[in-house]
Design a protein that fits this description.
Shape: globular
Helix content: 25-40%
């Protein structure tokens, strides 16, 4: 069974973490089971909304301490309770009081290695631009801790002038680290950026592309918010009546070459003749004949990736019809990779050209098939 992805959302009390989660819920499929683990008493009205939400399948609370410090030892028990009683598609850990989530991230990684039940998907830090005063500690240790942050969400920036927002950016720059960052849209950030792809989301074909398509823009977006990230849609389509595999050597080279300050997330459903090792070295080997074509979910997040076997079928090729040869026989077209790439602002054109140039995403045999790369945002 595939491990449960865990998303950590941290930030000081009142920064807007719970609002971020509330705005995430409507973006998920109706059947998606999200579990929440938190270590604070927050706003009663907001927390009651979370408790009554049909999308929140279970809530665990760890109180009277910082989850990143003296409650780390209780984390395994709380996660096991959610896994056993709720069987969630994803667990979100919401914690306050710590600008440095390294201890918590390392504990999730340890539990994942020991049990095989969990995998760290991403660490999100929410900053209240109106009230945040910057990091109290900018030492080497603080910089090492902050390297575990994958994404900074600037919240409540609409309430301040441009000078105050620029000052906030300067304070983030005090740690001299390249960390992806976006502005929220009144507490809303696209799930394609917050969450990686998992088996439950992959069942919804629209979710494979993060809810984006050439003809359908994400709903409830202001023009400004759309410009915070850029998104590429990539489809690799094979020709012929024999099952084809993606070239995993080329794919791994692509994953290793993607800089985390330019590429935020890569999500894909992939046909392959064997599993690609995750960045941790783990291999999800499916049962069956060696060399047979199987389907996998690729989830790359800020430099880490997992490659997990799934029974989810790839969708039919987009805008591609079977062709007929002169002899009357038809040529079958089959999607062997469907990918979404979420990039920093200003990066889509460059990466579209790189991918179209070839050598990054291609068939195993290196011949036949064709690549469709579209910029959707």
């Amino acid at each position: 069974m595939a491990p449960i992805p865990i998303t950590i959302i941290t930030g000081f009390l009142g920064s807007g973490k719970t609002t971020l989660i509330l705005n995430l819920i409507p973006q998920l499929p109706h059947t998606y089971k999200l579990a929440l683990l938190k270590n604070e008493f927050g706003d009663v009205a907001i927390d009651s909304q979370l408790a009554s939400s049909a999308a929140i399948s279970g809530v665990q609370e760890l109180l009277n301490g910082c989850i990143c410090c003296n409650l780390v030892g209780q984390l395994g028990d709380a996660l096991e309770t959610l896994r056993r009683d709720v069987t969630p598609d994803r667990i979100v850990i919401e914690t306050s009081g710590s600008a440095f989530p390294a201890t918590l991230a390392m504990e999730v990684n340890r539990l994942g290695r020991e049990t095989g039940h969990y995998v760290l998907d991403g660490v999100v830090v929410v900053i209240d631009v109106e009230n945040w005063k910057g990091y109290e500690d900018t030492s080497y240790t603080a910089k090492m801790q902050q390297k575990y942050t994958d994404l900074i969400v600037f919240n409540k920036w609409e309430l301040v002038d441009e000078r105050m927002y620029e000052d906030c950016l300067d304070r983030v720059g005090d740690l001299e680290l390249q960390i992806a960052n976006v502005k929220s849209d009144k507490g809303r950030v696209d799930q394609s950026l917050l969450l990686g792809l998992d088996s439950a989301l992959a069942k919804d074909g629209d979710s494979v592309h993060g809810g984006y398509s050439k003809d359908k823009q994400p709903h409830d977006h202001s023009a400004h918010h759309q410009s915070e990230v850029e998104v590429l849609s990539v489809n690799l389509v094979s020709e012929g009546n024999i099952a084809k595999s993606v070239n995993l050597d080329s794919l791994e080279t692509f994953l290793l070459s993607a800089p985390r300050d330019e590429v935020y997330r890569i999500k894909a459903v992939v046909s392959a003749s064997h599993p690609l090792a995750s960045s941790s070295g783990d291999v999800d080997e499916p049962a069956g004949l060696p060399g047979s074509i199987n389907t996998y979910i690729l989830n790359w997040a800020f430099g880490r990736w997992t490659f997990t076997h799934t029974n989810t079928a790839l969708p039919a090729p987009l805008d591609v019809a079977s062709s007929t040869t002169g002899s009357g026989s038809s040529t079958k077209h089959e999607t062997i990779l469907r990918m979404t790439i979420v990039l920093a602002r200003g990066e889509a054109t460059k990466w579209k050209r790189r991918i179209e140039k070839g050598g990054m995403i291609e068939q195993q045999d290196g011949e036949g098939g064709f690549l469709i790369v579209d910029r959707v945002i």
